[in-house]
Design a protein that fits this description.
A hairpin with a 5-residue loop joins strand 4 and strand 5. Helix content is about 30%, strand content about 20%. It is α+β, with helices and mostly antiparallel strands. Keywords: Signal, Transport.
Length: about 525
């Protein structure tokens, strides 16, 4: 059987041939950093992990509406400081070991507890927990403990109310891994050599660095047998290359295509344009530890110098929106009416630089991503456009980049990047998913902007029980973060995906969290 699969894969990859009906081929925007659940923060890793792992809760296709996953139901106590989850029975990991409460406790301890022996923290970063929940185990942790109440029930005990806890734990960062597989692989778990073991619709088979990942259907998947026998992820960094392979049929579906390819996709009778709902932000992040950027006037000048509307019109067309909000349009109820629309005003920017003591400008590094993302499909040309705007007010920019995994790591290492392009695709339908990840206690390493007032407002908002209370608190956060100009929103994009016309059953989720097992290839 394995020899037959290898033959099919060889045929699928041969130039000018069509992928076998038993093999589904996805054109990925880059190589995953890791396949270790709880230890990622990039979409390239998450989209593969979605196929290998299940989360306790998940969302319904095409929405941010919560649905059961490995938990069949969940209930809070009266003040929402405890959430109890009833777990799905008769589910096995790909290695044949049982899924149960012990497995959930093991995984949560890996993500949350720095002292947990199987976390291998000297070798690993474990940033995911910080991005969603803030500080790990300790006096500032929102999670006090996780308790096993029975073989198929666990309770999360919190230090403060969290109204959105079931949504937060649904994030695709938190796939449940096999404890036995983790213990066996040790610190190598999630790497190309060791692979990954979950309960999801597809099982890890191989990872060829720089080329592809091969997954096989899980015939015992609790939600139903996958429609394809093999799922292949090919690493195609260039959006044009992904589109060309879609046209030839060597790739069945792909995302993060250049927005200006929309017309070409619609004109090709063999392709179908698939627009992922907009639920992201692409932004320019500034490091307040850098000498010039310590000054708020300098940061505000940079914000005013960027002609964001022109940049978005040029690189996204109808698929992008420029505004002054860190949250996407779907969460606009959290915005402040006191914050004006994006203000392009180079003359006012020059004035601010003079007031800050830099009449002749200065030089900064601007780092751009080496891979296309939903929010920045063509990073280098976009960076060049921003550099031109900044040069107009006297700020000379050195453009830099590096390998994606190193880029993500180095931005958090002292002294950090002066300025860098990054973004965020939301994982659950609340403003906290955007603000907390970059302004909360766990999200300040790259920028040095550790603002207690903002963090206190975020804490209050995440505990608020009504939309009205949350709206008031997030409006104030919007005002403070806009004035700080540390994370400058550039775009909210509607990512362009496409599929061969013989594919059905693909419903992209706003949060890049869909599984591919329901896709049928005719």
């Amino acid at each position: 059987m394995m020899n037959a699969r290898k033959l099919l894969l060889g045929l699928a990859l041969a130039a000018g041939t069509q992928a076998s009906a038993a093999t589904l081929v996805y054109g990925a925007g880059g190589e995953p950093v890791t396949l270790e659940s709880g230890n990622l923060n990039d979409t390239n890793s998450a989209i593969v992990q979605n196929q290998i792992y299940d989360t306790l809760t998940r969302v319904r296709p095409g929405t941010t509406t919560l649905a059961p996953g490995l938990a069949t139901s969940w209930t809070p106590n009266a003040d929402r400081t405890a959430w109890t989850f009833n777990l799905r029975r008769n589910v096995k990991f790909h290695d044949g070991t049982p899924f149960n409460a012990d497995a959930v406790v093991f995984n949560v301890n890996r993500w949350w507890d720095p002292a947990f022996a199987s976390g291998y923290r000297p070798q690993k970063t474990w940033e995911s927990w910080r991005l969603i929940f803030g500080e790990p185990r300790g006096k500032d942790s929102v999670l006090k403990s996780i308790r096993k109440d029975g073989e198929y029930q666990v309770t999360f005990l919190l230090s403060r109310p969290l109204a959105n806890f079931p949504e937060m734990i649904s994030v695709n960062f938190f796939g449940i891994a096999s404890p036995a597989a983790v213990r066996k692989a040790g610190a190598s778990y999630g790497t190309p050599g060791a692979g990954a073991v979950g309960t999801g619709p597809y099982m890890f088979r191989s990872w060829t660095s720089g080329a592809q990942i091969n997954l096989a259907a899980n015939p015992s998947y609790w939600a139903g047998k996958p429609r394809s026998d093999t799922l292949l992820f090919r690493f195609l960094k260039d959006p044009s290359a992904r589109l060309n392979e879609l046209k030839t049929g060597t790739v069945d579906f792909a995302c993060d295509l250049n927005p200006d390819s929309l017309k070409a996709v619609r004109a090709d009778k063999n392709l179908t344009a698939v627009l992922r709902p907009s639920f992201n932000v692409g932004f320019l992040s500034l490091n307040v530890r850098q000498e010039q950027l310590k000054n708020a006037k300098v940061r505000q000048a940079i914000s005013m110098a960027l002609n964001r509307k022109a940049i978005v019109d040029a690189f996204w067309g109808e698929l992008g929106v420029a505004d002054n909000s860190f949250v996407p349009p779907a969460l606009a109820w959290a915005n402040s009416k006191k914050v004006a629309a994006t203000a392009y005003n180079p003359e006012a920017a020059r004035k601010l630089l003079r007031e800050a003591g830099y009449p002749n400008g200065f030089t900064l590094d601007l780092w751009y991503m080496p891979v296309s993302r939903p929010y920045f499909p063509t990073p280098k040309p976009i960076a060049e456009a921003m550099a031109a705007d900044l040069a107009d007010i006297g700020i000379k920019v050195n453009l830099k980049t590096e390998d994606w995994a190193k880029y993500l790591e180095d931005r958090n290492k002292a002294p950090g990047f002066d300025m860098y392009m990054i973004g965020w695709s939301g994982q659950y339908g609340a403003p906290s998913n955007f603000y907390d990840a970059f302004y909360g206690p766990g999200g300040t390493q790259d920028s040095g902007f550790d603002n207690a007032q903002v963090q206190d407002l975020l804490t209050q908002a995440s505990s608020a029980k009504s939309r009205g209370q949350q709206a008031e608190l997030y409006a104030r956060v919007h005002e403070l973060t806009n004035a700080a100009a540390v994370r400058i929103p550039i775009v909210h994009s509607r990512p362009l995906c496409a599929a061969r016309s013989n594919l059905t059953g693909w419903v992209p989720n706003p949060a890049n969290s869909e599984q591919f097992w329901t896709i049928t290839k005719k």
